[in-house]
Design brief:
Chain lengths: 339, 716
């Protein structure tokens, strides 16, 4: 038992408390995105919504799949799929840090009994053409949240910027419940019988089978084919969108056809490419040299979609920024994964 | 004379940036006060924490002093017509702020002009500071900026409040939409509400102390005291001093305290390097060692940003995190043992060293070749070396890049390879001592990582370290990727510094030109070679590059005077050990009067020869003794071969100090020559021979150092 809290929340209570907290502060509560993503950042509710001038506040849980991180359910701290609670505040309010600290209180953490630090941690996602600066939030030495001010996304400078809060739910739950293995986290407790369902009950088979699939059985050749199919369809869509813009300008019919163009569909295809890349990577099917060029291909899609999306939202096309991330050594995006 | 305070309150500044930014802010404020004639009588003090940069100045003038100056106006003939002031006179009087009747007259060579005494009123300090400080704040350098509102002034993180006071008055400055006031903020958790600041100085420092915010010095003292106190609870133990870590935790806290945590002693089976890296680099913990054995103890110290942990809740949390991290490390360690380093060499074929230079496997083979060539040179010089050890170490050196442990803790590359080599069977019948020697060489392969770092512990490690770096430098140069200006993405300068330092400290007979010819040779026939740039002048660009590195080493690491370094390197920079010996000898003989005089003479000789070359005068290649007329020149000519022979013999033994003394002995002959002999005479033959004599002198005696580079009394 964590001495600070005699009755720690279950995993689902933790989610409910955070969702309630952010809903009460004006966030739209979204549901998890239904295409595989590696992080909450990649869900369209973040990747696309942070673009353009329109204010937006949203919170959602995002199951995040990272095939290479799987450990067959044998490692108490590492998962193939973990859950992030993602909050986007666009633009960030003046008291964004204070709000964040209040949310910890809502989870049941009394900050007067703990040690909290904001330590520099910037991220850069080459695949998304995105970067931001911020902190990892450390609670008693444990990284519980990634707090980032987005500066650029899909190669587009953001105006306004957004604050992104990514809570690592498994880590936080294990901390609150004071268990050493993620699989021992109490996911739910039956209020009538007091019966407990653990994280292991819910997810262990998932971890084992997907580790086997990702590391051993995924068909490499077919995965490459899927990748190529998704990529070419996505590229074709982006080309059509570009052509559409020119056509409409020529005919003076700007806006109507553009609005109904499936940029969102193109983005789903891009996400599929990203996930297929991760599977191929886990299978060891991508050599180090190839890696760079495949990432560049996915990035080209992401950047194209970001520009199309901005274009679709306004009528002026977005300029891709020349600015490179300032810190060359910025770490690759590393969302809060379980301890 | 009021006191001034500026506090920039913001979200957490990265710890590594605080000290430099704080210093820059002080410098900027001090320069601004100087520039605006508001200089204070006392130094600027400061208080900075992760959430604020504050500067305090006591006793600055409340306004600039008034300035009185004489300004000249139109000529009297224009300003007055018929004794009456013209519009020109009125305009000037208005500009000067005086009545026409008060205008004075001055006589200049061009005639008589109007003049006036003008008093410029000094501006109030508050106005100037409010106007000029925002620009200074905006100009502070940050290694990584951000913007948080557009269009925006830049700062490293969002600025949330400003306090600016001259005594009890708010200075009305504004930065990025934030208006300065007199309300500061205390510690995030330990203080309630805003902290009103009555005035600058101690009132400010005390108010913050009340609100649980301490300045840098107080924090460091508090942390040291608490580390000592916590460690005392373990008999015979002491915490490991770690300046970089201490600086970091000082700048991660506003009100620090320390907890002592424990971990399961069974983790002590893991190598200390791994445990310390996890604690220090990943968790910011201080390690605790046994005071007499220096072995790690199963405890750690964590620095908190709060006033204590009475119930042990925080300690419990830290112990839990460390346990998970150690478990991971142990898991990686055990997983890695399933595949020995030998097997992993194959895996290196899939790890790219550099996109045009191929895989680490190919690099390992090249480095292996280069190592055996270098080892042979060393062996021939009579030094004992174990080529077999180097050969094996070079082959396995990079295999740890494929281990889970290095993937997780990249800073342990090399070290992990060394640790694994120690515990694994590398070859069926390899004696243990050879295995340990291989392990040590692998362990040290990245050393020295800086000028302060030590060189590899063994000769075999030194050769591997040099060959590995030389291979990288040679490859990058051949591709045309040498460092330019501030750009050195592959840290080639640091690697070159490492080569120089290692050769110098081991006194290795490895000449740089030969080393790099060999390193280049190791690429022959490779795929990489096809990518090499045809435009690169490989030997010369490397020679220039290393000359700079050697200059840096002699001057900054060994502390030789810059002119000695220039003189020595002008006589050759290929042999590092030799250059060091020459620099030592020149430094020793330099204070003698004879040497000083010889240096002056050599400068003179160089000038004469340069002028002769510029005016296309012939210089005799060999001096005809018969052509020389004066006793002084014949005497000098006769002495040169003798002295040259002696110097050459001594130099061959690297007895540079006596060799230099031999050269100094030529002083009387050289002085007499210049007293009695005129070089640039009309007679062509005579002049050519005299020039030839000087050229011989210069050539024969510039092999240790180019004395004309030595700064002498007359040339300072």
């Amino acid at each position: 038992m964590n001495p600070s809290k005699p009755n720690p929340p279950t995993f689902q209570e933790l989610i409910l408390r955070l969702q309630t907290f952010w809903a009460e502060r004006g966030c739209v509560l979204q549901q998890p995105y239904d295409v595989e993503v590696g992080a909450g950042t990649m869900a369209p509710e973040t990747f696309l919504r942070v673009l353009g001038p329109k204010p937006y506040k949203v919170a959602y849980v995002q199951p995040s799949r990272r095939p290479a991180d799987g450990r067959y359910g044998e490692n108490p701290n590492r998962l193939y799929k973990h859950n992030q609670l993602q909050v986007i505040l666009k633009p960030p309010p003046e008291n964004v840090q204070e709000l964040y600290l209040e949310s910890l209180g809502a989870m049941g953490i009394d900050l007067r009994q703990h040690d909290i630090k904001f330590e520099e941690d910037n991220w850069e996602s080459p695949t998304l053409g995105a970067w931001g600066i911020g902190w990892q939030v450390m609670l008693d030495g444990l990284e519980i949240t990634q707090f980032t001010y987005f500066q650029q996304c899909g190669g587009v400078d953001l105006d306004p910027i957004s604050a992104e809060l990514t809570y690592g739910l498994e880590r936080i739950a294990a901390f609150l419940q004071d268990v050493d293995s993620i699989y021992d986290i109490v996911w739910a407790r039956d209020p009538e019988t007091g019966g407990v369902t653990t994280y292991g009950d819910v997810r262990l088979a998932d971890e084992l089978q997907f580790s086997v699939y990702n590391f051993e059985t995924a068909d490499v050749e077919k995965a490459w084919q899927h990748f190529a199919l998704c990529e070419s369809e996505c590229r074709a869509l982006l080309e059509k969108f570009a052509a559409l813009g020119k056509e409409e300008i020529a005919t003076g019919g700007v806006g109507r056809n553009k609005k109904r163009f499936p940029v969102l569909g193109a983005y789903d295809l891009c996400l599929k490419c990203s996930h297929l890349f991760n599977i191929l990577d886990a299978r060891g099917a991508i050599s180090v040299t190839e890696r760079v060029s495949v990432i560049a291909r996915v990035r080209a899609l992401a950047v194209g979609i970001a520009r199309a999306y901005v274009d679709q939202q306004s009528d002026a096309p977005a300029e891709e920024s020349e600015a490179e991330p300032v810190g060359k050594k910025a770490k690759p995006k590393r969302e809060v994964a379980p301890v | 004379m009021p006191d001034f305070l500026l506090e920039i309150g913001c979200e957490e500044i990265p710890a590594r940036m605080i000290d430099a930014a704080s210093l820059e802010l002080r410098t900027r404020l001090s320069d601004l006060l100087q520039r605006e004639r508001l200089a204070a009588s006392q130094a600027i003090s400061y208080l900075d924490t992760p959430r604020r940069l504050a500067v305090l100045v006591s006793g600055i003038p409340s306004a600039q002093p008034d300035v009185t100056e004489q300004i000249n106006g139109p000529s009297v003939s224009v300003a007055f017509k018929d004794g009456q002031p013209t519009p020109a006179a009125h305009a000037f009087a208005k500009k000067a702020g005086v009545d026409v009747s008060q205008l004075e007259r001055v006589t200049t060579p061009k005639g008589e002009y109007l003049s006036a005494k003008v008093t410029k009123k000094g501006r109030a300090a508050a106005d100037l500071l409010a106007e000029l400080l925002p620009k200074e704040i905006n100009s502070i350098y940050w290694p990584k900026n951000m913007y948080w509102r557009k269009p925006s002034e830049k700062f490293v993180r969002p600025v949330r409040w400003l306090v600016a006071l001259l005594d009890d008055q708010v200075v009305p400055l504004e930065f990025d939409g934030i208006r300065a006031g007199n309300q500061s903020r205390g510690h995030r958790i330990l203080a309630d509400g805003p902290v009103p600041i009555a005035r600058p100085g101690n009132a400010y420092v005390d108010a913050l102390k009340q609100a649980k915010v301490l300045g840098r010095g107080d924090r460091e003292a508090q942390i040291r005291k608490a580390l000592d106190a916590a460690t005392r609870t373990i008999p015979g133990a002491r915490w490991r001093e770690d300046k970089a870590l201490l600086d970091k935790v000082v700048n991660l806290t506003e009100y620090p305290s320390v907890i002592l945590g424990n971990f399961d002693p069974e983790f002590l089976e893991l190598p200390e390097e791994v445990l310390v890296t996890v604690m220090r680099d990943h968790q910011n913990y201080f390690a605790i060692e046994d005071g007499s054995t220096h072995k790690l103890t199963p405890h750690f110290l964590a620095v908190l940003n709060t006033d204590g942990d009475p119930q042990g809740i925080i300690r419990h949390g830290h112990e839990r995190v460390l346990r998970a991290r150690f478990n991971d490390a142990r898991f990686f360690w055990q997983t890695d043992q399933k595949h020995r380093l030998r097997e992993r060499t194959e895996w290196l074929k899939a790890v790219t060293f550099q996109k045009d230079l191929g895989s680490y496997y190919e690099k390992a083979l090249r480095v292996q070749r280069l190592c055996s060539w270098s080892a042979e040179i060393i062996r021939q010089s009579g030094t004992q070396i174990r080529p077999g050890v180097i050969h094996k170490a070079a082959y396995l050196a990079k295999t740890d890049l494929t281990t889970e442990l290095v993937k997780e803790f990249t800073e342990l590359q090399g070290i992990v390879g060394g640790l694994y080599a120690r515990v694994q069977q590398l070859d069926a019948d390899l004696p243990e001592n050879a295995r340990f020697a291989i392990a040590d060489a692998i362990y040290d392969q990245y050393k020295p990582e800086s000028m302060e770092d030590s060189v590899p512990r063994t000769l075999e490690g030194a050769v591997l370290s040099i060959a590995d770096k030389a291979d990288s430098i040679a490859g990058m140069f051949a591709l045309g990727l040498q460092p330019t200006g501030s750009k050195d993405p592959f840290a080639l300068r640091r690697q070159a510094n490492g080569i120089v330092k290692t050769i110098a400290e081991y006194k290795l007979p490895l000449h740089l030109s030969r080393l790099f010819a060999d390193a280049r040779e190791a690429y022959r026939g490779s795929e990489a070679e096809k990518k090499f740039s045809a435009k690169v002048d490989f030997p010369n660009s490397l020679r220039d590059f290393f000359r700079e590195r050697l200059e840096f080493y002699l001057r900054d690491a060994l502390g030789f005077k810059y002119d000695v370094v220039n003189a020595v390197l002008a006589a050759g920079s290929d042999d590092v050990v030799d250059a060091v010996a020459r620099a030592q000898a020149v430094t020793k003989v330099r204070p003698s009067a004879d040497f000083e005089s010889i240096s002056v003479a050599f400068k003179r000789i160089k000038n004469i020869l340069r002028q002769a070359a510029e005016t296309k005068k012939e210089i005799a290649g060999t001096v005809e003794a018969a052509a020389l007329q004066e006793a002084a020149e014949r005497d000098l000519a006769a002495r040169i071969p003798q002295a040259a022979k002696a110097v050459a013999a001594l130099s061959a033994q690297r007895n540079y100090e006596p060799a230099l003394i031999e050269i100094s002995k030529l002083r009387p002959a050289v002085d007499t020559f210049f007293d009695k002999v005129m070089v640039m005479v009309e007679d062509d033959r005579l002049r050519a021979n005299r020039l030839g004599l000087l050229q011989t002198l210069l050539k024969e005696f510039s092999t240790i150092a180019d004395f004309s580079e030595i700064v002498t009394e007359g040339t300072k």
